[in-house]
Structures are given as structure tokens and as C-alpha cells.
Design goal:
Blueprint: E1 5-8, H1 15-24, E2 42-44, H2 45-57, E3 61-62, E4 69-70, E5 72-75, H3 86-99, E6 102-105, H4 117-123, H5 128-138, E7 141-144, E8 150-155, E9 184-187, H6 191-197, E10 206-213, E11 217-221, H7 236-245, H8 251-263, E12 268-272, H9 275-280, E13 287-288, E14 291-292, H10 297-306, E15 309-314, E16 323-331
Parallel strand pairs: 11-12
Antiparallel strand pairs: 1-2, 3-4, 5-6, 7-11, 8-10, 9-15, 10-16, 12-15, 13-14
The protein binds zinc ion.
Zinc ion (ZN) is lined by residues 7-8, 10-11, 32, 34-35, 37, 40.
Length: 348
């Protein structure tokens, strides 16, 4: 067999690790050097390292209120000091031997867990406004022009063919950016994001409207990677990312921001989708030598493509004829795919 293939999926005892190894490795009918099985999926050194990273690092991501960080890391300088199940203790020895590494608890830099000044100021009602002012000043204004298309989904509408069904909800208050007396029409240019954001199930009757502006709309673009001369701990860019990737506990901040932006004369906001996190399948706030990749020029374009954007338009733009309904379709979900991977279960 190829000397470069050192292990196979059958070498591992942990079922999650075995299944993940099958996805990463390559087929090769010869016997495994390590366990002599012929039916396992073989792994070379590079693939063994990918498996370790995906399983132990990505698989141990922890999400506090804001931010996210893996709990486990590995490198060639440290000895293994994490407590795992018996089967994983056995499996981990294979990685130690082949990669010459140890697995340990990762002490994240605190900004990864939301210890960022502007983000903390946003959580404090007294200091919030000063950050809102900066957001308007530092993020770019973009124009959504006539004839550009985006989508809006409705689940079980009463009258699917009626255009007003696709306007903003007449009962605002439940979403990230709408509040009582502040209606918001949510949409996206990415249909898959719309489907996710609506949390549809296969039983739902789903309809999708293709919408287009009837006049140029002025939007605040919060997905742009802004240039900043400061550390991660002072970054407005990271604060906004974390605000929009946080769940419901953060809504009181985004709702107030939304009202503020409207009062400043904008027609709406472009913001990062919560599902950017899930769909791109990577560590939420990756770093190189402890520096956020969002702040490294060579990574910027890549980081930007990882952000999937959503659109929020203020008021009732269909009723007010600033948005036109170009088309309405029924949307049939053939199946819902869950993308998943595995991680370790630690023992306390
Ligand atoms: Zn094997």
C-alpha cells in the first residue's frame, strides 16, 4: 500500500471519529499498516491532521452569549491533558503517535468570547447610542437599484397569489430588527438563506415572491469589512459580526439599532445572516497567531465571501409601492438536508 497512508477509519473505536474519517479519507483496498483491516477508508498524514482538526477543534466549538471559540486545540509543544471517554483515550493515542502532537484545553483570547469594548457598550443601554453613531459613520451606505432582484418567503399564507401577503408582517415585534410600530420586510438574494431563516418544515405550504425596488433604496451595509486601526478588543467590525450571529438575547440591541438607522433616513439595512456561521462550516472567528483573519488584508476577500447577507427594509414597501412583486411561486421542498459533523464528548 501507499506508504503515506498511515491509518484507516477502522483504526478508530469512537463511532463519530470513524464516520468522519470515512468522509475525509480515500478508498484503497490494501491492508491498513496500523490495524491490518482492508475495508477501512485510508488516511495519509495530511488527512489525519484534517480529521484531528475537524473532530477535536471544530467539534468542540463553544458559543457563549457573544462570539465563539473551540475548547480543544492541539500542537506539537503540549502533552495531552483532556479527559475523554475510554474509546477516545485510545483513539487519541493514534493521533499523538502519527502527528507528534498533544491535545489540550484552549485558552481563547477573550475577544473571541465577546470581550470587545464596542460590543460591551452596545449591551449597556447608557452607552449604546454612541456606538450607533459610529456604526452609521463607519459602515458604508449602498444603493439597492431598480430591477435588482431579491426573495421573500411566506409560510402558509392565506391568499398565496396576493401581492400584499409578501409585504412586511402587520404584527411586528418578533424578529431581529422589527418592533412594535416598526415594520420590517425581510428578504435575501440567497433563496437558501430565506428558507433557513423562515425555519420551514416539509409540512409547510411555502411560497416565494421575487421582489424588486421601484426606486433606488438607500441601505446601511453592515456586512462590509470596515478598515480599522485598533486591536480586536476595540473592533467595531467584530462587534457587529458577533451581534448578528448571536441569538434572541441580542434582539433588544438590534431592534433599537434598526429604529435608529431608520430615523437617520435609511430605507433599510443589509446585515450578516445568522446562517453564515452554520453554512460555511468553519470556526466562527478564525485566527492566525491570535489575530482575527478579518483583520488580515490577504484574508479579507475570503472573509467577505463567507458572509451571507440578509436584507431588511423598513415600513410596508409593497403597500407604499417602493418595492414591486415581480413574480410569485410555490416552493416545494424535496428534502431537507442537515449538514453535520462530529466532536468529542468530554468527561468532567
Ligand atoms: Zn486501520
Amino acid at each position: 500500500m501507499n506508504l503515506k497512508e498511515k491509518l484507516c477509519s477502522e483504526c478508530f473505536t469512537d463511532q463519530g471519529l470513524k464516520l468522519l474519517a470515512e468522509r475525509i479519507g480515500i478508498e484503497n483496498p490494501e491492508n491498513c499498516i496500523n490495524c491490518s483491516n482492508s475495508n477501512g477508508i485510508k488516511l495519509n498524514i495530511e488527512q489525519i491532521e484534517t480529521l484531528a482538526y475537524r473532530f477535536f477543534v471544530v467539534g468542540s466549538i463553544f458559543k457563549p452569549d457573544y462570539g465563539a471559540s473551540p475548547i480543544i486545540q492541539f500542537n506539537e509543544h503540549k502533552k495531552t491533558n483532556i479527559k475523554l471517554s475510554k474509546s477516545l483515550q485510545k483513539d487519541i493515542k493514534l493521533f499523538e503517535k502519527e502527528l507528534g502532537v498533544g491535545f489540550f484545553h484552549y485558552g481563547p483570547r477573550l475577544w473571541m468570547l465577546g470581550e470587545i469594548e464596542p460590543l460591551k457598550d452596545l449591551q449597556d443601554k447608557k452607552t449604546r447610542k454612541s456606538i450607533f453613531k459610529r456604526i452609521i459613520k463607519e459602515f458604508p451606505t449602498v444603493l439597492l437599484k431598480e430591477n435588482e432582484l431579491f426573495y421573500r418567503i411566506r409560510i402558509n399564507p392565506e391568499n398565496p397569489g396576493a401581492e400584499n401577503e409578501y409585504d412586511s408582517s402587520p404584527y411586528p415585534g418578533k424578529g431581529r430588527l422589527d418592533s412594535e410600530n416598526h415594520q420590517v420586510l425581510y428578504g435575501s438574494q440567497d433563496l437558501e438563506v430565506c428558507i433557513h431563516e423562515c425555519r420551514v418544515t416539509v409540512e409547510d405550504e411555502i411560497y416565494v415572491a421575487t421582489l424588486t425596488p421601484k426606486k433606488t433604496l438607500k441601505l446601511l451595509d453592515l456586512t462590509e469589512l470596515i478598515d480599522e486601526e485598533c486591536t480586536e478588543f476595540e473592533s467595531l467590525d467584530l462587534s457587529i459580526q458577533m451581534l448578528f450571529l448571536a441569538s434572541k438575547h441580542s434582539y433588544e440591541i438590534s431592534k433599537e439599532l434598526s429604529l435608529y438607522v431608520k430615523d437617520k433616513g435609511f430605507d433599510g439595512i443589509i446585515y450578516p445572516s445568522f446562517f453564515s456561521l452554520v453554512r460555511s462550516g468553519k470556526i466562527p472567528f478564525p485566527t492566525v497567531y491570535g489575530i482575527s483573519t478579518r483583520r488580515i488584508p490577504q484574508y479579507k476577500e475570503f472573509e467577505k465571501t463567507c458572509t451571507i447577507w440578509n436584507l431588511a427594509l423598513f415600513g410596508s414597501p409593497i403597500k407604499d409601492k417602493t418595492i414591486g412583486v415581480k413574480n410569485i411561486n410555490k416552493l416545494v421542498l424535496n428534502r431537507i438536508i442537515y449538514d453535520y459533523q462530529f466532536g468529542p464528548a468530554e468527561i468532567n
